């Protein structure tokens, strides 16, 4: 079966004026237009292609890489809006349609949105939706502390970064656990910090617990090395200075330098902290 909205590995059956016809083991066939055919090929070769629907809603193959695939989320640019809905650039010739009924808020040309791609059961057409919450579920969370996951950053708030975990769950990276520049649309590797009793999931970008030193401490170590071994910050420093310099709260900073001092990785001075010479 050739899967729409997904990658398929198909056999090159024949070459015609429109392009290459590709097929699967069940004798299903799809066209790969000439503009996408490989420079060198032979009949019988296997080719990995993405299959979607053309302007006449017929399956068509491409070697282009889409920004999102079926039942997943992507960060897409709105290129057009008309009386029917919005059209998103998803890396393919035909744009992805997002009807007004599937827009969390009215889309505007030029803006970027987190969009889910699904197959409309009524029309058998690929359709986008920015109402992402209806495709996420935290009722049955099987993730555990320290598990490595893939996350998509959906939006930033005063609390931190809201993320989609493994394309399935909602999660949050608290602001005190963010030590690098992340933005909406970023896809990053992360780790489960904890799954709460209400199934809310806390995520961090550094391996927590026994799999690394305390994440804030690790970050401060890297900052010390980058600064030549000294930072003019200490436990009496103004909280805003710590926040501006390191992006963390004073409480987190004091806990981190306490860990580093206990491990004999830094020296505490009256005007700052200094990396131990052999670090």
Automatic annotation (TrEMBL):
Pinpoint the Conserved virulence factor B-like winged helix domain residues.
220-275
UniProt domain Conserved virulence factor B first S1: residue ranges: 4-63
Family the UniProt entry places it in: Belongs to the CvfB family.
Could you tell me what this protein is called?
GntR family transcriptional regulator
Organism for this UniProt entry: Patiriisocius marinus
